[in-house]
Amino acid sequence: MAQKKAGDVKNAITYYGQAIALQPDLTIPYYNLRAALQSEENWEEAIICYQKALSTSPSEGETYHKLAQIQLHKISG
After folding, report:
1. Strand, helix or coil for residue 26
2. CA 70 to chain centre
3. pTM assigned to the model
């Protein structure tokens, strides 16, 4: 998250992707990557991150809510 906070979103996206490649069963890197992607308005990839986070932790109700919000944002433009 430090990379994202420093404003270096492109590097943050790369680092989160590397973290996911190393440990794809962890949920947190998907959330962090999703946040970075959303800040870049990359809605499709952010939605994929939510879906992958749900596949690793399907009982996270808040994730379903946030996924619905981003999908609504995407279709409402």
Report:
1. coil
2. 11
3. 0.78
